[in-house]
Amino acid sequence: MLKTGFYTTKPANNSALVVLIANKAGKAVIESNASDFDKKVKMALSSAIKASANFTGKARQSLILTGIAGAEVDHIVLLGVGNAKECSLTDIEAFGSVVVRTLKMHKISQASILLDSFDGHSNQSFAAHMAYGAVLEDYSFDQYKTKSKSKGKDKVEIKKLDFILSEVAEAKKLFTPLQKIAEGVFLTRDLVTEPANVLYPESFAARAKKELTPMGVKVQILTDKHMEKLGMGSLLSVGQGSARPSRMVIMQYDGLPKTASAKQKQPIAFVGKGVTFDTGGISLKPAAGMDKMKWDMGGAGTVTGLIKALAGRKAKVNVIGVIALAENMPSSTATRPGDVVTSMSGQTIEVLNTDAEGRLVLADALWHTQEKFKPKVVIDLATLTGAIIVALGHEYAGIFSNDEELPKQIAEAGEAVDEKAWHMPMCKAWDKAIDSPIADIQNIGGASTGAGSATAAAFLQRFIKKGTAWAHIDIAGMAWADKDRPTVPKGGTGYGVRLLDTLVKTHYEGK
Ligand code: BES
Ligand code: MN
Ligand code: ZN
Asked: In the prediction, which pLDDT does 10 show?
C-alpha cells in the first residue's frame, strides 16, 4: 500500500511539490499557501498559469513545471481543484488519484502536497481524503509478472506522498480508518483478480481464514461433508461436477461489547456468491469471454473485504459474513438440466439451466445464515445475471429488496462513495414465473418472462424467512472494470466494500 505522511513542513527529500489551484468564474485562483510559495519562486506559478493555454485550475487539471529556481524541488505540479467549496469527498479523493497518475506519468517517485484552506472543507478532511484517493488509485496486481518486477524500470512506483498542513494530528485521525477500508478494498480486488487455478473454494476459504483470524474475526469453514449433513443440496449441486470440493465460510466479527443489549447485538449479515469459476456447467457458456468468469466470486470477494474493513477500523457493530464457494464445471458428475435437488430449507428445485447457479449456492447460504444467526438484516451480493448489465451497464448495481427503507439506504450510501446502486422492482408475476411443474421452484423463469435479474431475485426471496429484512445487490456489471476510473484502476474494482461500510456506519453502528 502506498505510504503517506502528514507534516507541518515539507520533508527535505521530496523531489516534487504539488500545489492546489482553485478556479473561480473560469479563472485560476492561487490561495494563501500557494501564493506564499509563488512569491518564493518569483511568481513562477502565476506566470506559468498565464502562459498556459489550458490550465485554469478546473477540477482534475494538472500542469507540471520543472527546474524552477528557488523551488527547492525539481518539479512543481499544479493541480486544479475547481470550485473546491462545492467538492464532494469523492471529488477530493479523485484529486488524490490525479496526483498519483500525474506523478507516475512524469516518473516522479516522491512528492509533497501543499494544502490550502478551502471554504466548506477542513484542511484535515481535504488531506485525509486526498490521501485515501491516492492510496486507492495506486493499487496494482502484478504478482505474476516476473519480468517487469525484476527489471523494475518501466514501472514507476511512488515511494511516499506527504501532505503539508498544520492540522497533522486531526488528519491522521481521519485517515486511519480510511486506510483500513482501503485494505479491505484491496483484499477484494486481489480475490477477484486471482485466477481460478489459484483461487478455488478450498484456497479461498484458507485465504479468508488467514486474513481475518489475526484481526479477531471468528472464521468457520464448512466442508462439503459438513454441508451434506446440513442438507445443502442446492449449493452442493453446483460444485458436484468439479474436482474441487465446495466450501462455505462463516466470518463472525463482534465489534460490540458483551454488555450491549441483545437487540444491539443481533447481527447484520452479508452473504456472497462465490462461484470461483463459472463455465455454465452442462449448460455450457460460449468460449468467448469465458475467462471473465473467474470473477464470478465477486460477491464473496466483497463480503470478505468488507469484514476486513469493518474489523480493521474496529466498527462498533456485530456482523456475519457468509460466502458460498463452489466451482461450476461440466463433467460426468455434474448436475444435468432437469435434475431436481433439495435445498436446506426443504424446498425442492428443478435445475432447468445449470448456468443459473449463483442463486443455487445463495439459496442454502441465505437459509443457513437466517437459521443460525437470526440477523436483523440480510444483504447478499452476487454477480448474478448478465441481464443486470443490459439494464444498468457498468454505472449502477441493481438492488432488489422486500423492505422499504433498506434499498433507499443502500442507494444513498452508494451515492456518497461513488459506488452507485439503483432500486429495481419485484412483483408477484416474476415470483410465479419460477413455479416448477414438478418441484417447488425452477431455477429460471419461462422463456417469455424476460426480466432475468428480477426472476433471479424472486428465486432468492423464496429463501428469505417472513420478517427478515433483505436486500440483494446484483453486482455483475460492477465487480470488474475494463476502463480506469478515478481511484479505481481497471480490473477488480472492490465494488461494494465502501458502500456497505458506509451503510453500516450510517445506520447500524452503535445502534
Ligand atoms: N455469472 C453469471 C452472470 C454474469 C454474466 C456475471 C456476465 C457477469 C457477467 C451467471 O451465473 C449466469 O450465468 N447467469 C445467466 C442466467 C441465465 C442462465 C438465466 C445469465 O445471466 O445469462
Ligand atoms: Mn452461470
Ligand atoms: Zn455465475
From this structure: 83
